[in-house]
Design goal:
The chain is an alpha+beta fold and 136 residues long. The chain is 29% helix and 40% strand. The chain has a six-stranded mixed beta sheet. It starts with a helix and ends in a 6-residue tail after the last helix.
Amino acid sequence: MLPTKEIAATARRCLDAWEAGRVDDLLAHYTEDVVYSDTRTKGKIQGKPALRRYLGKLLGRYDLKFFLVEGHRIEGHDGESMLWECVYRRRLPGGGLSNTIVQQRGISLCMVDGDQVKRHEAFIDLSVLDKLENAQ
């Protein structure tokens, strides 16, 4: 079992990398055999190549800013649950960002292997993103 501080640090570095929005930098925080899912994925995404494709689309469409509200170790496991808030803006075709901002809370479950995340499940309300689809 990893110390709680190491688990928390790994999960939080991964959350910070989401905000940077660079797919390659973010993927460095995941194991090769990562299993990822969120409310938007229709099932589980397995492995870095599949996650790269998903993240490329997602991060190409939205700018994300995360704020960790609280994190708790999952007792008996090398994992942490995180309650976070995220501010979303849609990326515009010309490279800029929409003026419309939406914010919501979500929960992530991150299981770690050393200093990388091997399982990441995120639970969010997708209807919030619908407000951004026609934003300018």
